[in-house]
Write a structure and sequence with these properties.
- The structure holds 2 protein chains of 2 kinds.
- Chain A is mainly alpha-helical.
- Chain A contains 7 helices and 2 strands.
- Chain A has a two-stranded antiparallel ribbon with strand order 1-2.
- The mean pLDDT of chain A is 84.
- Chain B has 3 domains: 208 residues, 3-Layer(aba) Sandwich (D-Maltodextrin-Binding Protein, domain 2), CATH 3.40.190; 98 residues, D-Maltodextrin-Binding Protein, domain 2, CATH 3.40.190.10; 208 residues, MetI-like fold, CATH 1.10.3720.
- Chain B has 20 helices and 14 strands.
- In chain B, a hairpin with a 3-residue loop joins strand 2 and strand 3.
- The radius of gyration of chain B is 28 Å and the shape is elongated.
- The chains are: A mainly alpha, B alpha/beta.
- Chains A and B meet through helix 2, helix 3, helix 4, helix 5 and helix 6 of A and helix 7, helix 14, helix 15, helix 16 and helix 18 of B.
């Protein structure tokens, strides 16, 4: 139980970091695209396209092989943890998403459409969930997260019934946190609309 | 637990004095006085990192506390002890082990790796070989499999990354179903998704023994149904270029010492593995002496082990035809290396994978959009009927929540291995992997689309209160367009996950080709370009659709 919880903490860490960093960069890109400055138009569109179109599934393999696993600084060894590589791989799609979504937001706001902020927030939470789900694939490159740990438990114990139980238990963790997240955002959205 | 395992080995060591023989002259492995290269790196770090299997009992497996133990971890411990450093074990698989040692994530691989010509090009495989195995097929006794000929055109479960997969498909005509690990292949076999599982004879012999020990008379019986083919020795791996360095030479000397002293024989006994002819022959060979001189010791002149003491050059799993001229020209002119891909066998596999990826993506998009529209309309309509409507919506809400909040890779595992097992009848092939993947991907993105559309429908209702549900749909789609497109793009990009349940789509096929020796840079970049263009095409398609929608 504690073993799986520790793994899930890793999923959350990877997701929060890539969402945070990706959103900041992505919104900046979206603002540049919206600004209509010629000089920034092409590069920001290209950057968005690149980030949006390349699957994190492929990027995971890329980061695993492109980033060295150990760096030597002043004669000391530092291991580059795999979760950092997984976080980087997941940051790219977030940048693409946030760039598109914020462009939509800026456009809708200018057009005077109501609910632009809510639309952005709802889509953002949907995407956060998608990223939490995608963090489960980090086990493919050996990140020590919950699905990887579940597989360790299964190969230790064996048995079809046990496997199904463990997987269902792990999915409960994801469902529970997803519900929590959705409830939180509902609260925030209600607060926002009341304030408005 | 590792310590307990070691204590066991040491106990056996002492109890079997006949085995723990002295080491012949010239075969004691020694650390160099001043280490260079990777060995110096290991000494400076103070830890040796060895990649081993954790799903291949008893060569490498997890004990009750989760620590990796087995015959190969014991060999790794012996290396670390002689180096005077700590040992760290990392679990690797057949598909990732060569990559991990070349990336420097592990120093050494001792993970049941067969010595093949292709692998010698990818990493440095150390001589002498330390073990040996052949390939057999394991299947149900009542399936009446009588040798390899009976398996022609039959679905056979294969572990991704095994060197013999291609030979089994090309020379023996089996229809390979690729799974990520031995555990998944075994599960798939038990659920009747293939008639047999091709794997190393060593591991399957252990499995049969374990089955005999359990003695459950109700459970279906399994047997090794074919003779062993493609017998090949196993090699310890170090990164490309390290084989002739201090690390490679030291480990080679250690392996020679293990053979000469009978250490591997003792480990076979300790782990309850029947003694094999290969290890006994190696033991005799490395002990042999002529006129008081150990025959297999390194030649003082050349510094090499005599050729007669090493295994013959490895078999090529499948010889490749000479590449076509344009492939060679392209490689020379641009560095784009398609030599391993432009063969009829691999070309056909890539094309098949491409077809699967495109059809799976198309199905998932259509499915996700239809599910989104239907469920959102239902929700909007039923919500108008107060508590009865909410009650009727309950199952739908539950489905959306579960589909959206469970990682699709877990959903695939649960439905394919868990529920699939309950649905399938023995020998039958209940819901195919492709259908399961298409449904799960559609539901996953469809659930997100439902939420986006219901929100947009509500917003639209506020803006145009006098319209009906269906009339508000175009407006709602326009409002939520970016979100819908993002969900659809996301599902196309996630289609690679279907490979977890043996759908041979593009990402996993490229990964497979790379693990078989195709050029990593060319194929991985090619894959990126392919997806870039695919999504770009998809987005322009959606853009055109939006223009249509606005025009309406």
């Amino acid at each position: 139980m504690g073993f799986l919880a520790g793994g899930f903490a890793m999923n959350l860490l990877i997701s929060v970091l890539s969402m945070g960093v990706g959103t900041v960069i992505g919104v900046a890109l979206g603002r540049l695209r919206y600004s209509g400055w010629r000089a920034f138009d092409l590069p920001s569109r290209l950057a968005t396209n690149l980030c949006r179109n390349v699957p994190s599934f492929v990027l995971l393999f890329y980061m695993a092989s492109m980033i060295p696993s150990e760096v030597v600084l002043a004669g000391k060894f530092y291991t580059v943890p795999i979760w950092i590589k997984a976080t980087l791989a997941l940051t790219f799609p977030v940048i693409g998403f946030a760039s598109d979504q914020s462009l939509g937001y800026f456009t809708q706001r200018t057009a005077g459409l109501s609910g632009a902020g809510e639309t952005f927030l709802v889509a953002w939470v949907q995407y956060f969930l998608i990223i939490v789900m995608a963090s489960a694939t980090a086990s493919i490159i050996g990140a020590d997260e919950i699905v990887g740990r579940a597989n360790t438990l299964i190969s230790q114990t064996g048995g079809d019934g046990f496997m199904l139980t463990i997987y269902l238990f792990v999915s409960l963790w994801f469902i529970f946190s997803g519900l929590l997240l959705t409830a939180l955002v509902k609260g925030v959205a209600t607060g926002l609309s009341r304030a408005a | 637990m590792l310590r307990a395992g070691l204590a066991l080995v040491i106990a056996v060591w002492i109890a079997l004095p006949g085995l723990a023989q002295d080491i012949p002259d010239g075969l004691q492995a020694q650390m160099p006085d001043v280490a260079t290269g990777r060995l110096a790196h290991i000494l400076q770090r103070g830890t040796l990192i060895v990649g081993v299997k954790d799903d291949y009992p008893p060569w490498g497996m997890r004990d009750a506390r989760g620590a990796i133990v087995g015959l190969e971890p014991d060999l790794a411990q012996a290396l670390a002890d002689r180096m005077g450093v700590d040992l760290e074990l990392e679990a690797v698989t057949a598909t990732n082990r060569i990559g991990r040692v070349n990336q420097g994530r592990v120093d050494v691989i001792i993970a049941t790796t067969a010595d093949t010509a292709e692998r010698r090009e990818q990493a440095d495989l150390l001589q002498p070989n330390y073990y040996s195995s052949g390939v057999v097929v394991y299947g149900r006794v009542d399936a009446n499999l009588t040798g390899w000929e009976a398996l022609r055109d039959q679905p056979v479960c294969l572990n991704r990354g095994a060197f013999y997969n291609r030979a089994l498909e090309e020379d023996y005509g089996v229809q390979g179903q690729y799974y990520a690990s031995g555990r998944d292949s075994q599960l798939a076999l038990r659920q009747g998704r293939c008639v047999g599982w091709a794997f190393d004879d060593t591991a399957l012999a252990q499995l049969i023994r374990a089955q005999a020990l359990q003695g459950d008379s109700q459970a279906p019986r399994y047997e090794v149904a074919t003779e062993a083919i493609l017998v090949s020795p196993w090699a310890v791996l170090v990164a490309k270029g390290e084989g002739q360095g201090d690390l490679g030479r030291f480990i080679s000397d250690m392996i020679a010492e293990w053979h000469a002293s009978g250490r591997i024989l003792a480990l076979q006994d300790a782990w309850d593995i029947p003694r094999t002819a290969f290890i006994e022959e190696q033991h005799a060979l490395w002990r042999s002496a002529q006129e008081g001189r150990t025959i297999c010791a390194r030649d003082p002149q050349t510094g090499l082990h005599p050729v007669a003491c090493l295994s013959q050059a490895p078999i090529r799993a499948a010889p490749d035809a000479r590449p076509q001229d344009w492939v060679v020209t392209l490689h020379q002119a641009t560095g784009i290396d398609l030599r391993a891909v432009a063969t009829p066998y691999n070309g056909a596999r890539l094309l098949e994978a491409l077809k699967l990826t495109l059809s799976l993506s198309a199905l998932a998009i259509v499915g996700a959009l239809s599910i989104g529209v239907v469920l959102a309309l239902m929700q909007d309509r039923l919500a108008q009927f107060g508590w009865i409507g909410r009650l009727l919506l309950l199952p739908q809400r539950l489905l959306i929540t579960v589909a959206r909040m469970t990682p699709p890779i877990l959903q695939l595992y649960i439905v394919f291995f868990g529920l699939g097992g309950l649905l399938s009848t023995p020998g039958g092939f209940a819901p195919g992997a492709f259908v399961i993947a298409a449904v799960i991907l559609s539901l996953y993105a469809g659930a997100t689309n439902t939420i986006i559309l219901s929100h947009a429908l509500q917003a639209e209702a506020l803006a145009r209160p006098d319209t009906g549900t269906v009339a508000r749909l175009p407006g709602a789609i326009t409002r939520g367009f970016d979100g819908l497109v993002a969900a659809c793009v996301n599902i196309v990009k996630a289609a690679g996950m279907a490979s977890a349940i043996a759908v041979g789509e593009l990402v996993s096929t490229v990964d497979l080709l790379v693990s078989e020796g195709a050029d990593t840079t060319t194929l991985m970049n090619g894959l990126l370009v392919f997806y870039f263009l695919l999504v770009l095409g998809l987005l322009s398609l959606f853009k055109a659709l939006r223009r249509r929608l606005v025009a309406v």
